[in-house]
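Figure S7 source data.
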Amino acid sequence: MFAKETYIRRRQQLKDTLKSGLLLFLGNDECGMNYADNTYHFRQDSTFLYFFGSDYAGLAAVIDIDEDREIIFGNELTIDDIVWMGTQPTISEKSERVGIRETLPMGELKSYLERAAAKGQAIHYLPPYRGDHKLWLQDLLGLAPAEIAAKSSVPFIRAVVDQRNYKSVEEIAQIEEAVNISVEMHVTAMRMARPGIKESEIAAAVTEVAMRDGGNLSFPVIATINGQTLHNHCHSNVLQEGQLFLLDAGAENAMHYAGDLTSTMPVSGRFTEQQRMVFDINHRAYTAAVNALRPGVAFRDVHLTAMTEICRGMKELGLMKGDPAEAANIGAYALFMPCGLGHMMGLDVHDMENLGEVYVGYNGQPKSTQFGFKSLRLARPLEPGFVFTVEPGIYFIPELIDKWRAENMYTDFICYDKLDAWKGFGGIRNEEDYLITEDGARRLGNHKPSSADEIEAECNR
Ligand code: GLY
Ligand code: MN
Ligand code: MN
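Tokens for the predicted manganese (II) ion complex:
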């Protein structure tokens, strides 16, 4: 945990922004995987962690701005809890660590909220992403399931986003630690990838690296010879001579800050000529994007810079035609890169995605619904303190190629007659993590091999 002053300061800033009302925070609880006592790995809600630091299941909190009270709600452990799961600090001890003196049993939360509602206080809550929280809100606030999302508080969402989007020096140090562990995961994979090894063996080895210093994975490992499938969680293949292997994996450090990196490597230790051409185009797009990062530049424009580079490269390969910048602007790039260039990163790998990309990545401005652009999670002008990924890729997705061709999509820009030969190519992505500084940008963490030469050297070490 950070020092208690950090949490006191964060809550004070939130109160200063919202000025009135009651803020309700639901911590996460244990969740049964196949029966109640066989639980998924416990992960505290990130907003709860941010304001209350407490990494324990079964807590809630209220900041009652009108009454000037901050209360943590929770139940002390029973002897059965202690016998089976071990002991924990008391609720008071957990609260004092973050500068909160008032605690109440969980059973009093509902009556506290009922009294507040009766007094006419506005009760603000964030959009829930877990089924048990939806049921809890239904009970606590007497809401119908269908109205829960719609009645979540936009001012509360915006205030939380406006704090969590700007990473402090102590948060950046934590993120950098997570990125460094993530770099080690990737170097491990580069040294392991060879014909005959299973995707699952590499996934297991990188998971070990993530967990060994008390952290965990920041999202399920993508370790695949089918890099064209963006979030591919299947690990059942054996790597074969001549294939590409894509690892998208990151660590969450012990303080729950995330890293998120992707590498694409040649299973045989050397890229084929064709693989290297595509790899180099993607690397050019990555470099162009990184060179464009600085305060005031809209990430949508950085995305377009990278997409222009990809379209230029596809033209060099004879797969596209026309003006690359125009192809990028109108969205023709999305045949090869159907996702966005990056996303905010912090306590969540896609930071605060549960609060809404429109607030996190678009500052409340509308988001495109067009294929490709709709998956751009970050578009707003960049500001010092923003931490995000840069992750261009080039993907050959046979079903998408067939669909676009059948629909005559962007025929002024795409050379469909050449694409059949590329349907088995797979996919390439490079992903690294950046911080916007006062006058530019800084890559976070240790260097990860990212050019074709560097990756080949690491694979052959
Ligand atoms: N790891 C998922 C992503 O790169 O966004
Ligand atoms: Mn990412
Ligand atoms: Mn990733």
